[in-house]
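ok so i was messing around last nite and threw this chain in just to see what happens. nothing serious, just curious
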Amino acid sequence: MTNHPKFFQNVQTYVDQAAAFTKFPNGLIDQIKACNAVYQIHFPVKIGNDIQVIEAYRVQHSHHKLPTKGGIRYSEMVDQDEVMALAALMTYKCAVVDVPFGGAKGGIKINPKNYTEEQLEKITRRYTFELIKKGFIGPSLDVPAPDYGTGEREMSWIVDTYIQFNPSQIDAAGCVTGKPISLGGVHGRTEATGRGVFYGLKQACSHADDMKKLGLTPGLAGKRVIVQGFGNVGYYTAKVMQENGAFIVGIAEFEGGLYNPKGIDIEDLKTYQKENKTIRNYPKAKFVKHSNELMEYDCDILVPAALENQITKENAPRIKAKIIGEGANGPVTPEAEQILLKKGVLIIADLYLNAGGVTVSYFEWLKNLSHVSFGRLDHRFQESSFNQLMDMIEKNTGKKISKQERDVVHGASELDLVRSGLEDTMIYSYENIHEIWKQHKKISFRTAAFINALNKIGASYMELGVFP
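result:
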């Protein structure tokens, strides 16, 4: 029995609900839903004096666009059903934000905390070799990225292994994203998913009519937020939302949760976590032993940013949040969603809200293919133009512009461009989904997002002549 026997079926259920609002033939919908390629791997690795057989997967869900794209997670919960579901979500996610990739996902069934860095490197490099053998990795074929349990370190091992086997391939660095800057990474990738969650929630809260129905005022300022998960996504979501006026009243982690109705200082908590390797005994908030209970506390916005299937039909009736922002993949089950919708909760779906990671991964991939850092060619020109403008203002007004004021207006750096591109993508994508949502009136935001994705994927297949 798999750990997540219903996750892939949950995704299929959402697609079926949306398909009823499209005009595509059933055969095309079946093709869109199907995983095009599933690769299950077992390989031996010497750990200490023992040989361990490692179970791993790579799933390419859709080849309607290439390369396929999706992260690699290291978790004892990894199984084929989970990886298939995550790969499928990547397909729809890429379509929603107009990133020209098919969906993919990878996973290695290990707990990385049980291995040394040297052992993890050995496992990662062997996994990469297995992907290379079968053509499941390459800048024009399949481009992995970090996910739960992985980060820049693992991506650096992957790109190095790939280059060793493809020394003459000029675009080899584009075989994986989420790399360190020194190896072709892009500024802003680490924060991308969390910052994208912020941009999405900010846009959702900007619609006064939608907020009025929830009994909320427009804007994020003053909103009480609980975030489940304090890893990469949860931390950056909480950090940026707090910087923009939200009150982070709760943080839930696997070892327990923290609650303070007056707000938790996110940077202070992160410092404490780094020093103590835990959030337990943090002195400036109440400790909640069972962290899942924290999701049921009173708040305006709940952001589940950990793993799938966190809000189920069992705990959904006790959720008090008015907005749920899915920072994780599949945190709300279909049964739970129906309960929440009847309560009037606005659920901002994962295939839109956490698409910031793949959006910035796309920017990194483009950077690797072009071999030029963003802003490098025009940064000095922009800065010179701005300074000339400042000089002209000084001359015509007689007012001296300080150095501090001049520094505010400068040529765009790579980080500036990445953040700008991400924000623009999240705003544009939200408005496209919002238009469909309002047009059909009684459907959920999630269904509207899936309709948006299916329309784009279906059109691609039709243009390919697969379904004339």
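not much to say yet. The chain has a mean pLDDT of 90.
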